[in-house]
Amino acid sequence: MQLLAANQVAIERGERRLLAGVDLSVSSGDIWQLVGANGVGKTSLLRAVGGLARLGVAGEITRHGTMLYLGHHAALKHNLSALDNLRFHPACDVICSDEDIISALAAVALAGYEDRPIGALSAGQQRRVALARLVLSSASLWLLDEPFTALDVDGCAWLEERIKQHVAAEGAVIFTSHQPSRFGELQQNLDLAAYVV
Amino acid sequence: MYFESLAAAWYMDGHGFYVWLAYALTAIPLCFMVWLPLKRMRQHWRWIQAEQRRQAAATATEAGI
Amino acid sequence: MWTIIHKMGSPPWFFRISGVLVRWLLPITVMLLVCGALWGLLVAPPDFRQGNSYRIIYIHVPSAVVALAGYYVMAFAGAVSLIWRIKMADVTMRAAAPVGAVLTAIALVTGAIWGKPTWGTWWVWDARITSMLILLFLYLGVVALFEAYENKTAAARACAVLSLVGTVNIPIIYKSVDWWYSLHQPASIKFTGESAIDASMLYPLLLMIVAFYCLFAVAVLLNMRAELTWQHREAGWLRQIVSGA
Amino acid sequence: MSYSKTSIWQPMSSEVASLSIWGAFARQFMRHCKSLVGSPADAINPLLFFFMVVTLFPLGLGPDPQRLAGMAPGILWVVALLSSLMVSAKLFASDYEDGSLEQLAMAPYPLAVLVMGEVAAHWIATGVLLALVSPVFATMLGLSSAALPTLVASLMLGTLSLTLIGAVGSALTVSIRRGGLLLSLLIIPLNVPVLIFGTTAVSEAVIDGNTVSWLALLGGLALGSLALLPLAIGAALRVSLDN
Q1: A16, A58, C169, D152: most buried by Cβ count inside 10 Å?
Q2: How far is B65 from chain C (nearest CA, A)?
Q3: Are C231 and A15 in contact (CB under 8 A)?
């Protein structure tokens, strides 16, 4: 099933043109990595694909199914507990019970941390609270911007495993990362250098 | 003309200062309002001409080589 | 209708038409302004109550009228930019804001100068002057917001939203200031009713209002042309015009 | 600590259920309320500001009770406006910085509705609270006690408009560094009618005049703002995300 079709997408920021003529078709089971040097427009493309960036985006983007976006910022309130942060998550994509959230937190190795305010957690732990959404959400297409940053080796392994599970369950993932081909055969690369104006 | 002489028009029965001041303070910004975009336009125009000359020079040297 | 909108959105077409328009409109405007000013200053009879100081009306009222209309022009351009996403509307909005702000400032300054001989003080919290002051803030808000954004496409969007909110608010602001003033109006200040204005005074006023409208149009067009020149400095059509001239 | 290594992905029991639009609104409302309970300074600071500025007026104008009482409606309303200005500067700032705004924009509900949940919580924490506490400050300034109900009602209705207008300003300036001064320039002119209607309502109450029509005007402004401004807030936030 096709989840996303981008046809001849061009992106400009202000007066600066970044990319032009990007074609991308994502179907369930796909893992796409956006490849390119710093400043080439990986994040801009990801945001355009998700519908976050609208100004200066030309071309046709068709989206089927629900999306989950995970950006540089974790969207967590520092004075709320991990449990509350996930319960009242601003993306409001699912209703989940407290047990679901607690087991999701346990899945990212944060069992017992559910009542701690986010501000009391370390940067890596905060990152993992954000990743717990990958367990809770029912979205079919994941848009992950640099998901492997600030994660330890175990965390990276878990995330890789989770992404593989997701695509096995008819989902799809588009992510940006500096490390080349984490998923080997499973993943496809979109090299943005080819579309730079 | 309502006034008998230019001096009378200047004096305006004591109100001349206010009236002429108001007109002067209007005229100055109005002139600027028209002049500033014209000046900007001329600057951009020159920039483009200079750029064209540079490009022409570049293609000329390339052809020479 | 659609073809006209489409054509107006095309910079080369606009650039050509506006060039012709400005060439004719600018001399006409200057002529109208000079004629109107001379008529108002020298020919029209003095007001029986205020004497000659009323002659400031010939710049005060036109600038105030056009400043207010200018806000609606700006907001309309903003609405067009929001709905149809035409870049030319952004340029129009950006060009109109500073012109409107200058006209509002002129209306305020001339109003203050008029106040001195009439009421004996430079500044009075009169309903109309106060409304103009608020209009100036609204204009300055749009100009400042545009300058504050780094991404100018986003800046135009933000200004469009702001000017639309402002447009809805302007009648409310004017009405509320009116009520506020009528509640607090000091008895010592009296106004000459505008309905009583004599034809010999009215004609130069109408002439000046027309002249100020023309001036607004010329200034906006000139600003737009300067802005377009910069935006399309790399474009072939503009380079042809420049090298052809 | 170890990551669970579940080899097969089990969908959670309730994951398919999605919220109604009101549910989404209520969730945002709750989120902001909880956050305010977590850091009550956000709700108490405006009150403290109000208190301190009200203290300044007798010091600046002299302690003459008659004169202070005459000016009390104006003083109270101007200070209420200023404190609303102060808090609206921070309304969307943390949401923008921590990425909550991106997530709100990705949510499958109209951004305007979700944001209103937050604005509603903000209004209750600042506006309603201020209105309820205002009689204390009004009494300190010598406002006649007959005018107190009108003061509370006018502040209640007025701060709703002030909060919504402040939210528009905050949404427009949230992506700008040092947008504080710009914010005041944007929203003070729009706040003028609220200030006029509010002050007049209280002044009329002091002389036992016609308060109802002024309160009705304030209510009308609040309703109009409720109808139109959420759209503007949503549009402005999208623009800010694009900057």
Answers
A1: C169
A2: 26
A3: yes
- For D172, which of C138, C140, C145 is closest by C-beta distance? C145
Residue D174 near residue D241 (C-beta atoms within 8 A): no
Interchain contact D207–C (C-beta under 8 A) = no
pLDDT tens-place string over residues D21-77: 888 899 999 999 999 988 888 889 999 999 999 999 999 988 898 999 999 999 999
DSSP D203-222: HHHHTT---HHHHHHHHHHH
Residue contact D106–A91, C-beta within 8 A:
yes
Which C residues in the span 128-187 are in contact with A, Cβ-Cβ below 8 Å? 150-154, 157
Query: Residue C100: its pLDDT value, please?
Result: 96
Q: Do chains D and C touch (3 or more CB pairs under 8 A)?
A: yes
Q: Which of C46, C22, C72 is nearest to C215 (CA)?
A: C22
Check if the beta carbon of residue C130 is closer than 8 Å to that of residue D140: no
Do residues C151 and A55 touch, judged by C-beta distance below 8 A? yes
Minimum CA–CA partner of B6 in chain C: C42
Amino acid letter, residue A149:
T
Nearest to A124 by CA among A146, A155, A79: A155
Residue C86 tokens read as 């035409």
Q: Span C190-208, mean pLDDT? A: 71
The whole-angstrom separation of Cα A151 and Cα C108 is 61
Contacts of B55 in chain C (CB under 8 A): none
Q: What is chain D's percent helix, strand, coil content, to nearest 5?
A: 80, 0, 20
| φ, ψ (nearest 5 deg) of residue A172 | -150, 155
Phi–psi pair at A133, nearest 5 degrees: -65, -30
Q: Does D232 touch chain C (CB under 8 A)?
A: yes
CA nearest neighbour of D84 among D120, D141, D112, D122: D122
d(CA D21, CA D114): 8
Reported ipTM: 0.89
